[in-house]
Amino acid sequence: MSSSDLRHTALDALHRSLGATMTDFAGWDMPLRYGSERDEHNAVRTRAGLFDLSHMGEITVTGPQATALLDHALVGNIASVGVGRARYTMICREDGGILDDLIVYRLGDSGAGFPHYMVVANASNAQVVLDALTERAAGFDAEVRDDRDAYALIAVQGPASPGILASLTDADLDGLKYYAGLPGTVAGVPALIARTGYTGEDGFELFTAPEHAEQVWRALTEAGAPEGLIPCGLSCRDTLRLEAGMPLYGHELSTSLTPFDAGLGRVVKFEKEGDFVGRAALAEAAERAATNPPRKLVGLVAEGRRVPRAGYQVVAGGEVVGEVTSGAPSPTLGKPIAMAYVDAAYAEPGTAGVGVDIRGTHEPYEVVALPFYRRRK
Known about the structure:
By secondary structure, this protein is an alpha+beta fold. The protein contains eight helices and 19 strands. A six-stranded mixed β-sheet has the order 10-11-12-9-3-13. The chain has a six-stranded antiparallel β-barrel with strand order 14-17-16-15-18-19.
């Protein structure tokens, strides 16, 4: 796909003026990096980084039966999400396979007094999720609306981010809990301010109108300069989420895996009222995972310097015992790391004799529990 065929965010010209290296990501022309990936990664871990995430897919669900629809369509208990809170959840097929992992924000009530939700899907799956929610809305008095063009999404992440954002907003950030969101203003323009992120650090995701995106970005850049904030691309976002043990759709998550296969069975809420898509298959998957799991998701830390990549085989005793799903050099640990699905017999942290086949050489790796990195609170 040529650059002219790609979708562009409202910040496209600004990224280019900053010298960003651009890349095709899920049909969007997105900044991969602005300079050094390691510097961008370390800025988020120690100070703050600024991301354009406007490629994510926002879907509005509202109406008298919006809550009932989402409880039917998703595996989580959406009825228990309070106004101003967010919930990590998944949408699955009837056979239990994961269509996407999502964040659902309950924004309050619409003008007519109905529940109002915003579902945020991954860019690569936004149309799939929209189509599935629209199909599953049949029989419910609820509206599913594609709002991908209504929002720009800017994230400020890292330990300095609360102080940076506080200088630009009227919102009570001290009272804003993790996985919560509230309306406010940022740099003088309306925004939904959410304390969410995909880096393993404290931070915020700011949903605003596309025409306001550049104003918000420039204000954050100016306010964050004394704190060492720098713009960050998708490359360091990937190493940050990998260190934090956060799954990426298409790598740790797919339609061939259930949430229980991915070690995320906790998001499936069998106790909620009513039936939901995939319930029977997921109940069987839960039983399998509890009694005889085929493979488990683990962390691998290299003893050497060679970097594993997605699709590389995990080996032990001359046999293939798993497959790498994500791998990269870890700037924080100073070693290559990977997430991998491995046979249950090799999933215990500290298991000896495990390696990764890197171009015919079996490189030794240590099996560790996820995440690799956890921030101090």
